[in-house]
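Re: the 333-residue chain
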Amino acid sequence: MGQVRRRRFLIASGALLATPLASFAQQRGKVWSIAFLASSKPLSRGEPDPYGAAFVGEMQAAGHTFGVDYVIEVSSADDDYERLPALANELVLRNVDIIIAVTLPAIIAAHKASKTVPIVCIGVHDPVGMGLAASLARPGGNLTGLATFYGDLFPKHLELLKSILPKVTSVALLANASVMRMVPGGEQIVREAAQKLGMRAHAVPVDSAAQLPQAFASMTRERAGAFIALADVIFLRERRQVAELALKHRLPSFFANRENVQAGGLVSYGEDGVEMFAQAARYVSKIMKGAKPGNLPIEQPTKFHLAINRKTAVALKLTIPQEMLLRADEVII
């Protein structure tokens, strides 16, 4: 295993319990080994895990009992994205049955590591354009899952921003630097969408949570009137720090994850992360029952959640349009 530290966990009742992963024979009564490969953990130590609970719950609904029909381990790079290829290769060498890759860097690492081990993706950006699938309807190969198209989400965030802040002309994009490097033309997508609404957009990349204070200082120097955070586990895990820095710098904030708004961000609009993990379980169930990943269509999210934090709006002396409040799925007061 060398310098690569292996972390093995079982997910049960929303908790992560340390346990070794066993090896099982290929026969009736087989216990499947399912590995989550992630760039980082989205939760701080000790926080409840609604994502793991959603996965296990959906698997149980499909007739697969945790600890009897399957076991789970989580392999996390802990924000060190350069470790992902080694972690992915290690999973393949240990003959795990299915890899669930979370976030684009993990998905790319898993795809490079194996063309045979079934891979279920959560949040893959433009899988056809990235060369990960032949098509959404019939991806081919060993990869399937849930796609996210940044080009579809950014314009919506900008529209929401413009509705609340009609006079803003400059907006910052807070993004994980590693992810931005992997998305061809990602920054250009944002700039073009902003230009259509009469705004100027510029990227503020960070490589780690330690760089967040400098990132917000940079936004202030650049006179950004607000910022949009690209969905990423760093901003999800550090959501309280991000919200506090946004208020400190008097910057209205827009996110993809509702948890960021629950922690003090202003507005979120995006896929339901918990539902995506439940949907991933449905893919895994089909594979366990004999389906080939390449024959399972890659799906795009159909349910989006709009959350607004009125307490944060008051703190920033902003007025949320009544129409937006009525459309919101969640309003925090």
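Residues 150-271+304-332 form a domain with the Rossmann fold fold (CATH 3.40.50.2300).
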